[in-house]
What we know:
By secondary structure, the chain is of the alpha/beta class. The protein has one domain: Rossmann fold, CATH 3.40.50. The protein is built from 10 helices and 12 strands. A 7-stranded parallel beta sheet has the order 3-2-1-4-5-6-10, with helices on both faces. A 3-stranded mixed beta sheet has the order 7-9-11.
Amino acid sequence: xxxxxxxxxxxxxxxxxxxxxxxxxxxxxxxxxxxxxxxxxxxxxxxxxxxxxxxxxxxxxxxxxxxxxxxxxxxxxxxxxxxxxxxxxxxxxxxxxxxxxxxxxxxxxxxxxxxxxxxxxxxxxxxxxxxxxxxxxxxxxxxxxxxxxxxxxxxxxxxxxxxxxxxxxxxxxxxxxxxxxxxxxxxxxxxxxxxxxxxxxxxxxxxxxxxxxxxxxxxxxxxxxxxxxxxxxxxxxxxxxxxxxxxxxxxxxxxxxxxxxxxxxxxxxxxxxxxxxxxxxxxxxxxxxxxxxxxxxxxxxxxxxxxxxx
Length: 310
């Protein structure tokens, strides 16, 4: 029975992965600051930024690491770039080195399309914007400290792969949404709360910025494949379909049969205008998204209702 360490295993995505792997018969240890009771998952209370604590508490018999712990807010990274560096890069460095010393064979981390940054790399004109799809071969132009730390962590992992033979895969996730995300403050839960509370939601800018949205169960499938098939290097993981914020609101209205009230406010800045991704590599590795946007949003809405989330 393989022993997998999941960092950030109490979080939205990490908990879904932890529970799924435990259900598949893995021994799972969750390293997180927050305790979350999950069947078949052992909890290790640890701040991954504390190297000494991490070395003392990291299991000696771990076979693989799935690294989910991170500060993921783009806006927070602009407010506290040092804190994001310490959490997203320094802690990843510690985890990789401890993994090397403990003989861990595989290391898979959650990365982001934010490593690409500008949808307009140098030399492209604005008329090309809508036609660009991100691929694994594109150069990285991170726009924020968050994107930069993810890009740097990918480079560090690649070096550990080449230098020490650790299978290292970075899954460049698009916008993840799904059940059990009531504590999040991203666009989908904010829309759901606005429906339930009969309030208005603020939309940054014109609402025409577009993103790829992927349902949580599809992300769990991708990480399971990455672990079991030994994905190496970067892999873009998304639905392969992009929607503007206004399109997303329309999809929520169809999925829930409720009208969404919204107003436009000034853009916060620091975010990409659009995200369109090519998931051919992931599909070639056996990944196939199962959830349409309407199906996924319907599940989120009913999950909010069943949990009494406001």
